[in-house]
Write a structure and sequence with these properties.
- This protein has a single domain, classed as PH-domain like.
- Helix content is 24%, strand content 38%.
- It contains 3 helices and 7 strands.
- It has a 4-stranded antiparallel β-sheet with strand order 1-2-3-4. A 3-stranded antiparallel β-sheet has the order 5-6-7, with helices on one face.
- The longest helix has 11 residues.
- It is globular.
- This is Surface exclusion protein, putative.
- It comes from Pseudomonas savastanoi pv. glycinea str. race 4.
């Protein structure tokens, strides 16, 4: 997973600050939020050799929620992946941050999806 996320990092598209990304190795998941570019990257190793990589912008999700203090959920507009869920010690902060991000206008966000497609 780290090789995938490293290949997709680019300051113009996706470069999350410390505290806005988490690798959940045991579950085979990664979630990163780039607050400057308005982009989100979700990587999920489904089984050995099969990995889902999902590039999201602020227009690709419908709502988010926190369960307890450490489970972050993001509901998407994708029928094949309607919900992302990850254990995260910063779930409440992410919830607040992404709500504010939704109100901003990001100019390069759509290009992020093309960037991910070309890099994989």
């Amino acid at each position: 997973m780290k090789s995938i996320t490293a290949a997709l990092r680019d300051p113009a598209y996706f470069s999350p600050d410390e505290g806005y990304e988490i690798y959940q190795q045991g579950a085979g998941k990664y979630l990163g939020i780039d607050t400057r570019n308005g982009t989100i990257l979700y990587v999920h190793r489904i089984r050995k050799g099969q990995v889902d990589v999902v590039a999201l912008t602020m227009n690709d999700w419908t709502k988010c929620e926190v369960e307890g203090t450490n489970i972050f959920r993001l509901f998407t507009q994708f029928t094949d992946l309607p919900r992302l869920e990850i254990f995260c010690p910063w779930a409440e902060r992410w919830y607040d941050t992404i709500g504010v991000m939704r109100q901003k206008q990001y100019t390069n966000a759509q290009a992020f999806k093309q960037h991910v497609h070309h890099r994989l």
